[in-house]
Amino acid sequence: MVEEKIRLLIVEGRSYSGISDELLRGAVQAIEAYGAEHDVITVSSALQIPGAVALAEEAGHRPIGVQYDGYVALGCVIRGETYHFEIVANETARGLQDLCIGKRLAIGFGVLTVDEEDQAWTRARVSEGDRGGAAAKACLETIALKRQLLGQPR
């Protein structure tokens, strides 16, 4: 039996393009180091990430859709002076967690929720926090666990 490569979809919210680029760089490095394949789609904000993951998962069960083994959610939400931060941060996390539990999806969470841009850079930089790489690794670990528990080849 020939084992197929793991294929991930990276869904990135691009509210802060420089930070997003660094998160993506870390995620891609981790995925490639593992020997997996990936695609990338972009949405304009973190709040759109759960919906995009849900659409991609549904499309993967259609004849022309791509089936993904897991998803990597990347984005950044920086606290402002309004309640908007809490809504975006909480609803993005809740939406992704609902997909993990309800649909049994492997999703690596790399959405930064910070008070200021400097904190985001510290967490995003591959040379420092590498949250993009950590999210990709978490997704890959979840896929391996899922396969182990279901008795599938890794």
Q: Can you offer a commentary on this structure?
A:
This protein is an alpha/beta fold and 154 residues long. The protein has a domain at 37-74. Helix content is 49%, strand content 20%. It is built from five helices and four strands; from the N terminus they run βαβαβαβαα. It has helices at residues 17-34, 49-59, 84-102, 117-124, 131-150; strands at 7-13, 37-43, 70-78, 107-114. A four-stranded parallel beta sheet has the order 2-1-3-4, sandwiched between helices. α2 packs parallel to α3. The longest helix has 20 residues, at 131-150. The protein starts with 6 loop residues before the first strand and ends with a helix. The model has no long low-confidence stretch (mean pLDDT 94).
**Which spans of ≥5 residues are poorly predicted at pLDDT below 50?**
none
User: Structural class, judged by helices and strands?
Assistant: alpha/beta
Rg, rounded, reads 15 Å
- How does the overall form come out from the CA principal axes? globular
What is the mean predicted local confidence, pLDDT? 94
Q: How many DSSP H or I helices?
A: 5
**Percentage of residues in helical conformation:** 40-55%
**N-end to C-end Cα span:** 12 Å
Strand order of the largest sheet: 2-1-3-4
